[in-house]
Design brief:
Keywords: Membrane, Transmembrane, Transmembrane helix. The protein is mainly alpha-helical. 67% of the residues lie in helices and 3% in strands. The protein has a two-stranded antiparallel ribbon. Helix 2 runs antiparallel to helix 3 and helix 7 packs across helix 8.
Length: 284
Amino acid sequence: MPDQFYAFARTAKDLSRNPLGIIALFILLIYGFACLVLGTIGEHLRTVERLPLIFFLVIFPVVVLGVFYWLVAKHHYKLYGPGDYQNEENFFKGSSASASVRQTSKNKNPEGLSIKNDQDRKPKNDEPGKQGNNPQNIEDLLSFGKGSVVAEFFEMIINRDLKEFDLSTGSTTEKILVKQLAVTRAEVWFDQTYNSIFGSQIALLKLLNERKYPVDSVVMDSYFEKQQQKFPKLFSTWTKEGYLNFLFVNSLIVIEDGNYRITPHGIEFLMVITKKGLSEDRDF
């Protein structure tokens, strides 16, 4: 019996690393409770009381299989497990496929993250055989993402990863694809950061961006204390380090010689918010 228990525990641990596995464990828990109820007090229930449980036990697996099929067939590129969020780079490796799918329907450049669509990028010359060989067209593709600090950062990461696996990055096609993927990763980074950041953290980035010089810990302590007073239910148990950790992890701010300053990533993040017209008035 102990061996079976430990085997089940190991299986549950492995399943918890996969998004569908997490759903399966949750479903197993619900189904187990239903079977337990029916098995222990089923004989004491009247037919009218027993029928809903029986229908549930029969129909529930069919519904679950249908949901699993729908998720895997239609939304497999949106499924992430806990391991995908261990760090920023690990997340982007898992989510780049998802973003690539979105990129085909919504093309954006890093400077404001909005570019002309593929139709607009086609050369004006409609003569067959000349469109793909237009030097200016190729040059435009090679400059894709130029001017974005975030896109250039991810381009460096991608090239580094490719070199680690001894993969070629020298051809024109490879360079273009790397730049396209880098911009896609920049978009995913922005979306993830914006969806998770507090409104007060955006205000802090703006404050740091307006200062000509980095701010010291006294200013940062004072700012955090104001947020604790403004949102006591959330931040009463937080530390300043915990509050700032999100900004450090996403490379929005850095600390140098005990002083805090906004990074080029943080400046570009604020620029994209402004250019997209997104709200800065977020929760907390």
